[in-house]
Every structure is written in C-alpha cells, then in structure tokens.
Amino acid sequence: MSLFLDTSSEEKVRHKLENYATSRPLVVVTMATGLQGNGVVKHLSNTGLFRIRAITRDPFSKKSLELLRYQNVEIVKADLLDVESLNDVFTDAYAVFGNTTPTKNWKLFEGSMSHDYEMMQGENLIKAVAKARNDGVLKHFVFSSVCKSKISKNSESTPRHFLNKWEIEELISLSSLDDVSTVLRPASYFENFLSKLPGVSISKRGFRGVVLPNAQWQTLAVDDVGAWTRAALMNPKRFLGFKLNIAGEELTGNQMAETLQSLRPKDVNKVNYKMIPRSIMRILEHDIATMASWIESSGYGADLSYLSKLSSEFKVKITSLSQWLKLKKLV
User: Fold this and answer.
1) Where are the domains of the chain?
2) CA spacing 20 to 30 A to 33: which of 13, 67, 72, 223?
3) pLDDT tens digits for 215-251?
4) Residue whose C-alpha is closest to residue 40's, from 112, 108, 97, 122
5) How far apart are CA 143 and CA 124, in angstroms?
6) H runs (alpha helix) in 107-222
7) The model's pTM
8) From CA 105, how far away is CA 123, in angstroms rounded?
9) Would you say domain 10-189+222-247+301-319 falls under CATH 3.40.50.720?
10) Side-chain half-sphere of 274: how many Cα atoms within 13 Å?
11) How far apart are CA 138 and CA 130, in angstroms?
C-alpha cells in the first residue's frame, strides 16, 4: 500500500515518510538528462522523501553522471523506444514521470520533428505504465504534455508536435489510466530563447522570438515543470485525475524586451524585440512556424490567476521572466 494514499496533506506525508526513511517511494523519471527530466530529479531529490531512478540511454554520459550530484538518485539504462526496458525499470515504481520528444533528424523545409518517432515513445510509455499499474505497484503517473488553447475551436492549423502530446493523452484515457494520472501541460519555455543559432537568441540589443511583437504569449521556465511535479506527487488526492495548463507569464514580445531592458543599466543600448521571419522558420523548423501562427490566433490557455492561487497552496515557486533572466545572467 502506498504511503501517500490516505492523505493529501504535504506535512502529514512528510512526517510519515521521515518515519519510514528506508521505505521511500521510488519515482522513475524518463528522459532524465533533458531539461524537464533534470528539473524533476532536482525537485524530488530536494524533498528528501523519494528514491529517484533517472532513466537515460547512456548512463555514463556527462549529463547522466551530473545527476549524481543530487541525493537519493540512481542512474539506470532504458529507452522509450524499447518497451521491455521500460517494463524492467518500472517494476517497483510508486510513480513515473513521463516525457516524450518529437526531435529526431533535421531536414530542410521540414525541420527535426517526427510524429512517428514521438508516438512510438508515447505508446511504449503508456504500455509500460499500464503494466506496472495492473501489476499493483504503480500508483501515480505524471505526464508532461503541452498547454491547450483558450479557444475551443480555431481554423488555424495546430502544430503537429502539439497534436502528438494530445494523442498520447488520449492513450492514457484509452488505457484506463486517468485515475492514476496527472497531466501537466506546459506553455512555451523561456529556454527556447537560448537558441544556439546565430541571430535568434537574446543579445545586447535584441530579444528574439517567433511570434508577432504585440501577440500575447504564455511562457514559463522549464524548471517549473519539476516544481509542479513535486507538488503533484506530494499531494496525490488533489492531483490524481487532474489536467493542468501551466505557465508563468503572459507577455507580448515587446513586453519581454522591456522586461530585459528594465533589468539593465539605464545607459546601455535599448533592447528591441525582433521576430524571426516566418518564412525563415518554415525553412528551418516548419512546425515551429505553424506553432507561432497558432499562438497568435489561438494562444495557450493557462489560467495564471488560478495558477497563482494553486502555487501558494502547494508551495510552488513560479519563475518570472525577470527571475529567469537574472538566473541565466542575461542582464
């Protein structure tokens, strides 16, 4: 029986686990070396209440070994493209954090995103979670999806990599996993502004983005996914069966540039927001161009007022853009 099933109180959960330190629930984190996975490992480790199994395809890579700086972490080899490897690592898991990626091989005029590649990961992930649940061990599955729109219907094309995530959500329901699942739906990440491509990242004079300068754009720090995952696992009665759009800010590109400008000395060059031409994005990463048009016409649907109340209740520190800019030393 899970130590978490009889209470939604984080304080009671913590007290119970501290008295059963040798029985810490095991949480398996997929794609642990990625930005989301790393954040989840960090936030869970900081509680001191979980054992964390960080899943990676190469346990001896630099990024994998860096995870050992966190407490109560083990690194285990497994692959989302190999369902049997997932079955093995989920065998004794109380909970699983699941994440998938569409990014594969880049092609001109198409980009790097593959529907089949991500759906194979998603199908394997859900099969393995369902098996672990049916075996009577797994009690909680947190899936990282993507934020849905505030508009129910819109003629603007939906990005294919968004549809991938929502199709995986449907697999969760079809596999009768809704009652043990929490779906977190992040908006766009601040980290996307750190592109290594020349001319498309934050600079001394420019704040680059993919949407029009005056379009409202919900964003968040990728680390916040880890914070919300911690909240979900610490408060299962509140979060089981829950689907939550998450974001930290809703600003226009011009407002983002103004935020950066406000953090810099008054005598430095003015920071201007510059949109990466849509025609260039269609050549470099077609689905991101589609996403930009979707954001402008439909927009992410996170309720920031509700998230503020929820974050206070569950001690989630939502990262503002200004905090993130300072953290990344971009000011």
Assistant:
1) 10-189+222-247+301-319
2) 13
3) 999 999 999 999 999 999 999 999 999 999 999 999 9
4) 97
5) 13
6) 115-134, 160-174
7) 0.91
8) 20
9) yes
10) 15
11) 9
